[in-house]
From TrEMBL:
TM region(s), chain numbering: 996-1014
Name of this protein: CHAT domain-containing protein
Gene3D superfamilies in UniProt: Tetratricopeptide repeat domain
InterPro entries to which the protein is assigned, alphabetical: CHAT_dom, TPR-like_helical_dom_sf, TPR_rpt
Gene source species: Dokdonia pacifica
Keywords (A to Z) from UniProt: Membrane, TPR repeat, Transmembrane, Transmembrane helix
Length: 1023
């Protein structure tokens, strides 16, 4: 070989060998750097680096095919990243490849072997969706405390075993494993994993129902997780959700529960707006809002949850069922009966198809239906489902369901007077509470309250008083449990033999304060429904006191308790602007408030219309929901700011809400008038009669039969088969004996009485209307407010649209004739548009609407009047009317069903008439059912003729009906169905025709002039 070539060859061999060593060393350096970055990523929580690290490890894996250990390590780290990204199938394939490489190359690296073994076990479970007990045991036995283990994998193993023990309900073992995992992760500095382990530990304690420890660990998890460089949003969201469940459902701290539920929404939304878990978060927010009495937001979140679940959780029936139950709960609370029951049954049907009856999903469904039926007053069905829940809960050992049953059944038995069934339930509740729920304060307080109610019901005053004293010491602070706190104060009164007037006044103020916590009027209405039974107990107590001491002071208090829940929200709405001006609230702030309310109303209508659309746009609905929530929160904040900045407003509301009846009697009541007020409880009803010179209270114990009779009578009218005998019976039951001078009656009704026209009551075949002018009022304070409205509209304005479908043949004729009588202005046919009404209605004194009306029993804000479809929107909703500022003295709503609607316990009928009252109209003439078109035209024409002659409104209506009855020859048309549906509500004062006003003024001036001239002449003659 050439001597010059040989040294060159040696040089090249040396160079290549060095190159291989250098390349190998370069790969090792890259691998070490990547592993260091991987560990740092876990320590700081900077998980966004996963993708770049994945690429690095994949490149290293490709370049180390001839370096088995480097290649195996790179493959393992790729699998770990894919596992963390929940790409379990790909990860499992790579772990199997790594294991094969490790064994083929006979490698000896215990850390990597340990890692492969852990992920082999872990990924097998994730892919197969089931535990292989033997594999788990083999792994634990082989690697437990084994020298050479990877410390991170050892910590991860303890954490995962904590999860497994938790699933197997081996809670003590779970806590031990998690404690070890937290110790190891902490020592290694892996903050992200510490946060996760704390969250799992919280869940374990939660399952053992040690809520104090659960809260401690959950909150530690959030504290650490929130401080990470890149917080783990999934962990933060799930931990927040669990805290929301615990504080809201277990501990009764609803404000804290709401806070954490909103945090869960925040984290899951930040991760992904289409995150499936948002449905669960929305459910919990809805539940939290429901528990604090904000049903407006509860409904929005409940509907959002169901929409979201149907879109993104369609393959998880239990989650769909959960959303159905949540929305069903909201609907039950707000009185949407059929929908609430339907959703509850649908939820049960879904889960019963996929799990056996003895399963917690089914148990949750039974409990939901039990509570739904209880809220709706269907107590037999409620009891049946509570007992089903108890049976399943005992079979699956779920005490959380049991405690709910044991707290609810006593309340049901109190209502049905089955007191003998209560003591065993109180004992069972106490046993479960002491054994499993020592820290669940709200559950304890509910049981304490049931104990107080039971002792009071059986007249064991001593034990009731002792229990009351005990519970007061245990309530942490005001408004912690507002529902229980209100009951405590009520029972303090009930357990005293003769409470003072001051004590009764104090409880009245408490009710007002509790109601004023809700800026939203809808929530106040629902609150009013919930407190009626409690008010009934106090009213009964006051009545008993009056029997012992017939004092005017006690009668005044009795009256105020009757009034406090009667149309109080409607009254507040009418008074609102005036009170706010008196309180000194600036015009610009009132304008902002009005704009917000308008935005709320408009957006709410968009939601309604979008949901009613044939082609539902789920994304659009969700955006509209979010917009509505923004408006709701802004409005609530504004109301709180107003209350805090202008305390005089609160005082004005309180003074108005606590006025007695003497002021009205002295100022407004005439000798020939009587006001008859009713209050109907479950078992008892009251009648309070007020005349100019006398007032008296009566109590009756026939509520159930009274309601049945009223239902039958109203049904007989609607079916045109009038039950005259029942009408005469109702006269004897409902009407007091009245002095002979009384010719005018004002009825302030309650409950089902709001659906009855008293005009049809008979005595010896003479209808009440034949002898008395009759009107109605929501409450005495509301009536006084309507009398004082001092509306200054001018003239008469009428509308009679033409309908292609369901025409009203006589509405145009009716309106034209009344236009002639009143010298007013009418819009007929195509000109009778919604736009014209909204534009013109604000200036007129009398509004007359001869239209079709549609009643929405589920959502009274969407009761609607139908105008001409000539242009744009033809539907005028109650919600839109609420937003108007009308100056009318009278609205005649001759369209059908304008006095009919959803019946609320406190606020009465949520009708179109109510909407006009809220908008500022002093009085309304409305219909309780669909009065036939021809009879409507006849009676309203008679009515206007009487008004023009100067009669009061109630007298004008009385004479119109009397004339109809006396001139109608067809006996069938004399049935109350044809004439009794028209009733008058509000101020009955006569209407002075503005077209004649100037003649009166001129005549008055001339008369004064004549008198002055005569006086001067007489003076001169005397001189």
């Amino acid at each position: 070989m050439n001597s010059r070539v040989y040294p060159y060859i040696l040089f090249m061999i040396a160079f290549l060998c060095n190159g291989i060593t250098t390349h190998s060393q370069s790969n090792q350096d890259r691998l070490d750097r990547a592993i260091s970055e991987f560990e740092l990523m876990y320590k700081t929580g900077a998980m966004s680096k996963q993708d770049s690290l994945l690429t690095s490890f994949q490149n290293i894996e490709k370049q180390t095919q001839n370096a088995p250990l480097q290649n195996t390590k790179a493959t393992v780290y790729i699998a770990r990243i894919l596992s963390n990204k929940r790409r379990f199938n790909e990860a499992e394939t790579l772990i199997k490849k790594a294991k094969k490489n490790y064994e083929t190359a006979s490698l000896n690296d215990l850390k990597i072997k340990h890692t492969i073994a852990y992920y082999e076990m872990y990924l097998d479970i994730q892919v197969s969706k089931k535990y292989d007990t033997e594999k788990i045991k083999t792994y634990v036995t082989t690697y437990k405390n084994k020298p050479g283990n990877d410390p991170f994998i050892e910590a991860l193993s303890h954490e995962y075993m904590g999860r497994i023990h938790q699933d197997w309900r081996e809670y003590e073992k779970s806590i031990l494993s998690l404690t070890k995992a937290i110790e190891l992760f902490s020592n290694l500095g892996y903050k992200n994993q510490v946060s996760i382990a704390y969250s799992i530990m919280g869940a374990t304690y939660d399952l053992t129902e040690d809520f104090e420890m659960a809260a401690k660990y959950y909150e530690k998890s959030l504290q650490i997780g929130d401080q990470l460089q890149e917080p783990n949003l999934d962990v933060l969201a799930s931990t927040s959700y669990n805290l929301a469940l615990m504080f809201g459902d277990r501990l009764g701290n609803n404000q804290k529960g709401l806070f954490y539920a909103q945090e869960a929404v925040k984290y899951d939304s930040k991760a992904n707006e289409k995150n499936p878990y948002l449905a669960l978060d929305y459910n919990q927010v809805a539940t939290s809002y429901m528990k604090i009495g904000d049903y407006t937001k509860a409904q929005i979140y409940g509907e959002k949850a169901l929409e979201h679940a149907k879109l993104y959780l369609s393959q998880q029936p239990s989650r769909i069922a959960e959303s159905l139950r949540t929305l069903g709960k909201v609907y039950a609370k707000i009185g949407r009966k059929e929908e609430a029951i339907s959703l509850g049954k649908e939820a049960i049907d879904i889960v019963i198809k996929v799990v056996p009856e003895n399963h917690h999903w089914v148990c949750a469904g039974y409990l939901h239906l039990a509570n739904t039926y209880k809220d709706l007053g269907m107590l037999d069905k409620a009891e049946a489902y509570f007992l089903k829940t108890e049976r399943v809960a005992q079979a699956i050992n779920r005490d959380l369901f049991l405690i709910d049953v044991y707290n609810n059944l006593p309340e049901l038995y109190f209502e049905t007077n089955q007191l003998e069934k209560v003591p065993p339930l109180l004992e069972k509740s106490q046993e479960v509470l002491q054994d499993r729920f020592k820290d669940a304060d709200y559950f304890h307080r509910r049981n304490d309250m049931n104990t107080i109610i039971y002792y009071t019901a059986v007249n064991d005053t001593q034990n009731a008083t002792q229990a009351l004293k005990s519970i007061k010491e245990k309530i942490p602070q005001k408004y912690t449990y507002p529902d229980i706190e209100l009951k405590i104060e009520a029972y303090e009164l009930l357990l005293k033999s003769s409470p003072t007037s001051k004590e009764y006044e104090h409880f009245l103020k408490t009710i007002i304060d509790h109601k004023n916590r809700f800026p939203n009027q809808f929530n106040k209405i629902i609150y009013g429904n919930t407190i009626k039974e409690l008010l009934a107990k106090i009213i009964s107590k006051i009545y008993d006191n009056i029997q012992l001491e017939d004092s005017e002071d006690l009668k005044s208090i009795f009256f105020r308790y009757l009034e406090i829940n009667k149309n109080s929200v409607l009254l507040e709405g009418i008074q609102g602007t005036r009170f706010k001006k008196v309180a000194g609230i600036p015009e610009e702030l009132l304008y902002t408030e009005a704009q917000l309310l308008d935005s709320l109303q408009r957006n709410n209508k968009r939601i309604y219309n979008t949901k009613q659309s044939k082609y539902k746009d789920s994304d659009k609905i969700q955006k509209l929901y979010n917009r509505q929530l923004m408006f709701e929160h802004t409005y609530d904040s504004l109301q709180k700011a107003i209350q805090n900045t202008y305390p005089k407003l609160k005082n004005l509301k309180y003074l108005s809400a606590t006025k007695d009846f003497n002021g009205f009697t002295n100022k407004y009541l005439q000798e020939e008038e009587a006001i008859i007020m009713y209050f109907i409880d479950t078992h008892t009803w009251y009648r309070f009669t007020i005349t100019k010179n006398k007032n008296y209270i009566e109590q009756f114990s026939t509520s159930k039969s009274l309601k049945e009779d009223i239902n039958q009578l109203v049904t007989s009218i609607s079916k045109q088969k009038f039950n005259s005998a029942l009408s005469q019976k109702m006269w004897d039951q409902l009407l007091p004996k009245l002095p002979d001078e009384i010719t005018k009656l004002t009825f302030i009704t309650d409950d089902i009485l709001s659906l009855l026209p008293f005009e049809v009551l008979q005595q010896k075949e003479t209808f009440l209307i034949e002898n008395y002018a009759i009107s109605y009022a929501g409450s005495l304070q509301l009536l006084e407010e309507q009398i004082n409205l001092n509306n200054k509209g001018k003239g008469w304005l009428g509308f009679a649209p033409k309908y292609d479908k369901n025409p009203l043949p006589n509405n145009a004729k009716e309106v034209k004739e009344i236009e002639r009588i009143t010298n007013g202005k009418s819009y007929l046919g195509e000109e009778a548009t919604k736009e014209n009404f909204i534009t013109l209605s604000k200036e007129y004194n009398i509004l007359h609407l001869a239209t079709h009306t549609e009643v929405d029993q589920n959502n009274p804000l969407y009761n609607k009047m139908l105008f001409s479809q000539k242009q744009g929107d033809s539907l005028l909703t109650a919600s839109e009317i609420y937003g108007l500022n009308l100056k009318a003295n009278l609205a005649v709503l001759s369209s059908c069903n304008t006095g009919f609607g959803k019946l609320e316990k406190g606020e009465g009928v949520m009708s179109m008439s109510r909407a006009f009252t809220y908008a500022g109209v002093s009085s309304t003439l409305m219909t309780l059912w669909k009065v036939p078109d021809q009879e409507t035209a006849t009676i309203t024409t008679y009515f206007y003729n009487n008004l023009e002659s100067g009669m009061t409104k109630d007298k004008a209506l009385q004479e119109a009906k009397r004339l109809y009855l006396s001139t109608t020859t067809d006996q069938d048309l004399k049935q109350p169905y044809y004439w009794a549906g028209f009733i008058l509500s509000g101020d009955t004062s006569p209407i002075v025709n503005s077209s004649y006003m100037w003649w009166y003024i001129i005549g008055g001036i001339i008369l004064l002039g004549v008198l002055y001239t005569l006086s001067r002449k007489r003076t001169e003659a005397n001189e």
